[in-house]
Amino acid sequence: MTGRAAAFLARLAAQTSEAARLRAGLPELDELFRDLVRAAAPPNPQFERERIIVRLPCPRELVFLLGLLSEGENEAALLLELIASVSAVDAAAPIEHMLDEAWYYLRTSIDAAWQLDDGEPSAAAALAYIFAVLCERLEALRGAIPPAGAAEEPGRVALLRSLRADLRFAR
Amino acid sequence: MTLPTAFFGHGSPLNTLAANRYSTAWSAYAATLPVPRAILAISAHWYVPGTRVGAAPRPPTIHDFNANFPPALFDFTYPARGDAELADRVAELLDPIEVERDATSWGLDHGAYCILAHLFPQAQIPVVELSIDRTKPASFHYDLASLLAPLRDEGVFIMSSGNVVHNLELADRTANREPYDWARRFDDVVLRLLAERDHAALVNYHRLGPDARLAVPTPDHYLPLLYTLGVQRSGEQVSTIVDGFDFRAGSMLSVSFAA
Predict the structure, then answer these.
(1) Which end of chain A has the smaller Cβ count within 10 Å, N or C?
(2) Could you tell me the pTM of the whole model?
(3) Do the domain assignments include residue A20?
(4) Residue B216 maps to which CATH number?
């Protein structure tokens, strides 16, 4: 895990509820999306790149379009945004169906055979996972580390499971 | 006169152009229907935040599938008119649920026209599509649909399109093999619950065990069924239009309700 991802995880863990973690984490994820666009877009001086990047209404969609976010990761990130927006309007609104769906998309984006899970889905773990893999992709774009390959899959499974365990609230 | 209502398992977008046992059954079913004034279509593929109703005078044909499909499918259009009056009526019936009239962002997706191309190939009946609000739980969709039931007495054919079993991750396109055991079992359970009119169990499908979790890994293709259940009247019987499986993990079950 990169230093940026570890710091993000620590900030998430310090929050006292899942809703607070989403509120705190999603703006940082948006900023990471913008950093990915900055790293991926060619530096054309005649193009007001930074102004456009800062104003992007949904940087996630552009990152997905650029192929830096898989379909499953994109769906999971979208659902986390929806959970946050629904909860902001009504803290008691049902969100379990969206969380289940997000968790399914995320785990099958790593391993299509990971169909039946042995634990509860976690919005914060999903968020931390997406943040962590995108930090790695950002580093790879900047040439700091080699791009991850298919051989990374067992590590990804372990990462998602460990984040779920690390971010579990005592019941 | 109350029009029948139906749920269709649409399967691959290729069924739009195909002449196979599914499309043949859909055509034969249409021949039994009174000619509707308009069609309200609920498709798995308009699965967005919010309840939206199509309001375009001529809804565009949306080719909502990847580029690996043949050019003929991208050339296909379903030129039905929209129906602003029906869109308004839907919003009226659903009040106080907020309904956005959408004339620009969507049209008819393959979940709708894949079936309509065989039901009404001349596209002479106006079609209005209704979105599925992905932020809402299953019970919301069933309850919402029940508000639409009066349309069946107003000459509107309410059709929904999805798949009772739909697991793309486990789909096996290499050969036309038998469905997975869990897929067949879940399909059978749904058909039994439909016959028993056990709507509560069907709405709470996620409590139907591991088979349900494999058959309905995400809600989008199952929820359309709840719209057809929601408009079912007491005393109406379920009849199977066609059944079967594609790619081991896709149920093609299509059912109709009529008195």
Answers:
(1) C
(2) 0.94
(3) yes
(4) 3.40.830.10
Residues of B with CB below 8 A from A96's CB?
137
Q: Per-residue pLDDT averaged across A73-94, rounded?
A: 96
Measured CA to CA in angstroms, residue B150 lies from B58, B66, B80, B153 at distances of 25, 37, 23, 6
Q: Which residues of A touch B136 (CB under 8 A)?
A: 94, 97
| Size of chain A in residues | 171
Show Cβ contacts of residue A149 under 8 Å, excluding neighbours closer than 6 positions. none
Cα A31 from Cα A37, distance rounded (Å): 10
A171 is a domain residue = no
- Report d(CA B11, CA B171) in Å as an integer: 11
Residues of A at the B interface (Cβ-Cβ below 8 Å)?
82, 85-86, 94, 96-98, 100-101, 104-105, 108, 112-113, 115-116
**Least confident stretch, A50-54, B67-71, B179-183, B214-218:** A50-54
Match 């620590």 to its residue by tokens. A10
Quote the CA–CA distance of A58 and B18 in Å, as a whole number: 38
Whether residue B215 lies within 8 A of chain A, CB to CB, comes out as no
Quick one: DSSP state of residue A66?
T
- A-chain residues near B214 (CB < 8 A): 115-116
Nearest CA in chain B to A84: B135
Report the pLDDT value the prediction gives residue A52, as an integer from 0 to 100: 81
* Number of separate domains in chain B: 1
Domain membership of residue A83 as a residue range: 3-166
The alpha-carbon gap from A144 to the nearest alpha carbon of chain B, in Å, equals 33
Nearest to B217 by CA among A125, A103, A71: A103
DSSP class per residue in B180-247 = PHHHHHHHHHHHHHHHTT-HHHHHTGGGS-HHHHHH-SSSTTTHHHHHHHHTPPTTPEEEEEE--EET
Total tally of structural domains belonging to chain A? 1
Q: Domain of B153?
A: 5-258
ipTM: 0.93
CB pairs under 8 A between A and B: 36
pLDDT in tens, A21-76: 999 999 999 999 999 999 998 877 667 778 888 888 889 999 999 999 999 999 99
How far is residue A60's CA from residue A74's CA, in Å, rounded to a whole number? Answer: 7
What is the rounded distance in angstroms from the CA atom of residue B105 to the CA atom of residue B62?
A: 10
pLDDT tens, residue by residue, B40-84: 999 999 999 999 999 999 999 999 999 999 999 999 999 999 999
